[in-house]
Amino acid sequence: MQRTLIQELVKKENKEVLIKGRVVNVRNLGSVVFLIVQDYTGIIQCVLDKKTEVRIGDVVDILGVVKKDDRSKSGFEIQGKKVGITSALLEDLPLDLSKNELELNLTTLLNNRSLTLRHQKIQAIFKLYDILLKSYETVMREEGFTEIKTPKLLGAATEGGANFFQVEYFNKEATLAQSPQFYKQIMVGVFERVFEIGSVFRAEPHFTTRHVNEYISLDAEMGFIDSFEDISQMLNRVLRKIFLLMEKEAKPYLNLYQANLVEVPAEIPSFKLSEIKEIIAKKYGYVVPEGVDIDPKGERLAGQYAKEKLNSDFVFITHYPWSDRPFYSLPDPQNTKETLGFDLIFKGLEIATGGQRIHDYKQLMENMQKKGVKADGMEFYLDTFKFAMPPHGGWGMGSERIIQQILGLKSIKEAVLFPRDVKRLAP
Amino acid sequence: MQRTLIQELVKKENKEVLIKGRVVNVRNLGSVVFLIVQDYTGIIQCVLDKKTEVRIGDVVDILGVVKKDDRSKSGFEIQGKKVGITSALLEDLPLDLSKNELELNLTTLLNNRSLTLRHQKIQAIFKLYDILLKSYETVMREEGFTEIKTPKLLGAATEGGANFFQVEYFNKEATLAQSPQFYKQIMVGVFERVFEIGSVFRAEPHFTTRHVNEYISLDAEMGFIDSFEDISQMLNRVLRKIFLLMEKEAKPYLNLYQANLVEVPAEIPSFKLSEIKEIIAKKYGYVVPEGVDIDPKGERLAGQYAKEKLNSDFVFITHYPWSDRPFYSLPDPQNTKETLGFDLIFKGLEIATGGQRIHDYKQLMENMQKKGVKADGMEFYLDTFKFAMPPHGGWGMGSERIIQQILGLKSIKEAVLFPRDVKRLAP
User: How far is A246 from A241, CA to CA, in rounded Å?
Assistant: First the structure.
């Protein structure tokens, strides 16, 4: 007999069907046994003989008749006739996956990832992630961006600093891409507007709730801009569209977290870094420590201010110091100690960094020299600017941080299927 | 004045507009100068004063009036009034990008990648690639697959052998993913159907027309299959849909290569490896050398046979030897020296590998032992099979090879924006 998918049961009232899936809950009422079964299209309750011996976690096929049942969510249940166990647990599950909340500490949650991912509430995180990816792909294409894929094995580090991983590449040394920066800029010279969804690798020794050492960056780069605000406005529009698109499908997953897709304002408020630091000092009595542009607490308070005063979950912070931004960042001609770029804060956490790039060859070479950056291995990138690049800029956005903030997850690691940190290379 | 996009000119007949873009050709007729200008939405011809001094490659803005012109492809041209050079070439282009054919050897083509990518015919490759990505994303979702992103930094190699890259990961050794194999299988236990578009890394020392050391794999994995043919049939359907979707948008790019999107048969012909070897020996007098399952020449001839005899550009080769397939491949119970999997050949080149996996824990452990594969670092993967995995399988498909074969490119490196090979880490 052919398999019927759970979402198709609505068309099969009073018909005999064969469903296949995983048992996600079992309730034994003495006289009957209720099995809750999940396949990739939905969840259904099956009523079975009291002698049925099936465990939560088993993979089964169930032959039965589809009956209307107003008490059930889907409006239907299956009067089961026969259960076959396609694949049985060899050991008892070490976790109770049928509970509403797993209530595990992060280490246990991640160590048992292939099981904890099966929990309904954790599945929801990655269903939402799937919808985010789809929405980004859709919206970027609507805005005229071409999807590109650029190499992750590089001859030279793109972002400077020491936070890159080294790879033995035949008889050479390679580094893992910290960003697609050089390549997406080169591609502005080709397609004018490009986007990439790709892995980036950061050898940061931080062990925090907002860092992982490998993540998926939602990148974009666009040409013929008049100012860096063209970039922040595009990011604003893209996020607004994405959140609207996500809303359509995400409801059941958000509900499990009592979360809402907040509205992205038509115009996200924006402050210069120096302004917002003054504001949070005055308003919340918090002074960002010397030596950093802004710290996580400062970002949280900036987010709090935007929410309290401007009713926005998003806020742009602009004009970061020249000394803290990479060599390709465009200095503000009004004040060359600052750069024409931004971070985007969502509910108090930085989710994106962007800005205008230097597109003039001589200015780029001078800026590198001032910063003491050597050209070694990036000649191909620098030479591109001899051949007429339009004014341009773009952003890199942490996909997992968006999910973390939407759902209010304590750690970003909960928003990564198999996260990597200083101590974790498995699962 | 605000910029008008080239695709919007059709609505602006006899109006004054400002367009921005790159000059892709210049023809000086003495009395007037014709500039061909490209932006991300199209290409337009501009007629300008004979004194206009602009070079191919310059980034310009042109103020002018939109005029009907039946001789031009778009039906319009711009009577230019004023040209501004937004960004000028600092050096003459080392290549003539206005020629129909670049006629460069592969090394020169790749060494000058940020310029050669600007050539119309090379742009077309990556426009087609963008359409392929979009189509894969769309079709996989239609078929109920959830998009996932899995780690590329691993504690253990997934495919065995020695062809993996090593990474210094803090104080440990990591390897770069040769495939998302372990993770996509685990995810079958969660979502039943998953797909991934991601980077894979192969430390193969080959220097050929069909290998690169980093590429984008189009992966899929699905549960509750009855046989490995469920996988090959799904791949068949997915490719058929993708080729139909691509056809709608790809025409202008295909035309530059005199290429067509061939029809993917409703049922791609399929041969056992042993059968097809006999056939090509008999028909073409070619005997595949001892010690390999099939070689590139064998694949070419298999493709030739499918085309000549069955009018198909695609052919499945199934039942590869147990000894040549990774430890997770399901042996054929009829003949355990063979596995229940396939390669897909497109126009004589392997573009995908797939098959059914072992889902039974004991069988997996026995198979590993027989193969002499050690469990080190993959316990998390193996343990998953103690907890009831459905029968499942999937494929990995080389995205760039599909493009190579559609366009008839001599080397796969032409289908990668910035390819990586044994000798190349830049650009």
Answer: 9
Mean pLDDT for chain A? 96
Residues of A in contact with B381 (CB under 8 A): 114, 427
Which residue among B57, B149, B168 sits closest to A417, beta carbon to beta carbon?
Answer: B149
Residue A418 with chain B: CB contacts under 8 Å: 150-151, 183
Three-class SS of residue B141?
A: helix
Q: For position A426, what pLDDT does the model report?
A: 93
Q: What average pLDDT does this structure show over A79-87?
A: 97
CA distances to A346, B11, B77, B128 from B40, rounded to whole Å, are 31, 17, 17, 15
Would you place residue A138 in the very low, low, confident or very high pLDDT band (cuts 50, 70, 90)? very high
Tell me the per-residue pLDDT of A23-63, one tens digit each, with 9 for 90 and over. 999 999 989 999 999 999 999 999 999 888 999 999 999 99
pLDDT tens-digit map of B310-334: 999 999 999 999 999 999 999 999 9
What whole-number distance in Å separates Cα of residue B288 and Cα of residue B297? 8
Q: Taking a C-beta distance cutoff of 8 angstroms, is the pair B30, B40 a contact? A: no
| Cβ–Cβ < 8 Å for B180, B215 | no
Q: Summarize the confidence of residues B115-144 as an average pLDDT.
A: 98
Chain B neighbors of A214, CB-CB under 8 A: 151-153
Using 50, 70 and 90 to split pLDDT, how confident is the model at A271?
A: very high
CA separation for the pair B76, B27 (Å, rounded)? 17
- Closest by Cβ to A190, choosing from B123, B186, B426: B123
H/E element holding A384? helix A379-384
Contact A214 B381 (CB under 8 A): no
Q: Rounded CA gap, B303 and B282, in Å?
A: 15
Average pLDDT score, chain B: 96
**Distance from C-alpha of A42 to C-alpha of A7, rounded to nearest angstrom:** 6
Which of A149, A183, A388 lies nearest to residue B87, judging by beta carbons? A388
**Cβ(B158)–Cβ(B181) under 8 Å?**
yes
The CATH class for the domain spanning A120-415 reads alpha beta
Which pLDDT value is given to residue A399? Answer: 98
State both tokens at B32: 């007037």
Average pLDDT over residues B222-246: 98
Q: What is the CATH number of domain A6-87?
A: 2.40.50.140
Q: Where are the domains of chain A?
A: 6-87, 120-415
Nearest CB to A153: which of B86, B190, B214? B214
**Residue A58 with chain B: CB contacts under 8 Å:** 388
pLDDT at residue A161 above 80? no
Report which of A85, A426, A339 is spatially closest to residue B174, judged by C-alpha positions. Answer: A426
User: d(Cα A414, Cα A412) in Å, to the nearest integer?
Assistant: 5
Cα dihedral B135, B136, B139, B141 sign:
negative
- The pair of structure tokens assigned to A56 is 């939560």
Q: Which amino acid is at A417?
A: L
pLDDT tens digit sequence for B149-173: 999 999 987 776 779 999 999 989 9
Question: Residue ranges of the alpha helices (H) in A224-378?
Answer: 228-255, 273-284, 296-310, 361-371
Please give the average per-residue pLDDT across A175-192, as a whole number: 97
Separation CA A61–CA A306 (nearest Å): 53
Are A418 and B22 within 8 A, CB to CB? no
Whether B87 sits inside 8 A of A390 (CB atoms) is: yes
pLDDT recorded at residue A72: 83
3-state helix, strand, coil in chain A (%, to 5): 30, 30, 40
Residues of B within 8 A of A56 (CB-CB) are none
Q: Is the ipTM of this complex over 0.85?
A: yes
Tell whether the model's pLDDT for residue A162 goes beyond 80. Answer: no
Tokens read off for B165: 């890259």
Subunit contact B153:A126, Cβ cutoff 8 A = no
Chain B nearest-CA distance from A368, in A, is 18
